[in-house]
C-alpha cells in the first residue's frame, strides 16, 4: 500500500470521523452554549486532523540549545 496523500491514511479518516461525531455532540448542547462549549468542542475537533498532518515538504533548521 502506497501513501500518496494524507487522505490515504487510516488515522486521518478516523480523525475526520471524530470531527463529525464532535459536531453532532455539540449540536445537542443547549443554544446558550453556542459561543461557549459548542464552539470550543468544534474548534478542538477540527484542530486534530489539521495539525496532525501538516506538510513535511519543508525543513526547519535544527535548533541548538
Helical proportion? 40-55%
Low-confidence stretches: none
How much of the polypeptide forms β-strand, as a percent range?
under 5%
Helix-strand topology string: HH
Structural class estimated from helices and strands: mainly alpha
**In angstroms, what is the radius of gyration?**
16 Å
Q: What count of domains describes the coordinates?
A: 1
Distance between the termini: 39 Å
Largest sheet descriptor: none
Note the overall shape: flat
By DSSP, the count of extended strands is 0
Number of helices: 2
Mean pLDDT figure:
84
Would you give an account of this structure?
The chain is mainly alpha-helical. The chain is 52% helix and 0% strand. It has one domain (6-52). α1 (10-27) packs antiparallel against α2 (37-52). The chain is flat and about 45 Å long. The termini are far apart.
Notable traits:
2 helices, mainly alpha, 52% helix
Provide the fold topology.
Blueprint: H1 10-27, H2 37-52
Helix pairs in contact: 1-2
Task: Give a brief rundown of this model.
The chain is mostly helical and 65 residues long. It has one domain (6-52). It is 52% helix and 0% strand.
Amino acid at each position: 500500500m502506497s501513501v500518496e496523500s494524507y487522505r490515504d491514511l487510516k488515522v486521518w479518516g478516523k480523525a475526520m470521523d471524530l470531527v463529525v461525531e464532535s459536531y453532532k455532540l455539540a449540536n445537542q448542547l443547549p443554544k446558550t452554549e453556542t459561543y461557549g462549549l459548542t464552539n470550543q468542542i468544534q474548534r478542538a475537533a477540527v484542530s486534530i486532523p489539521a495539525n496532525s498532518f501538516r506538510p513535511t515538504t519543508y525543513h526547519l533548521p535544527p535548533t541548538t540549545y
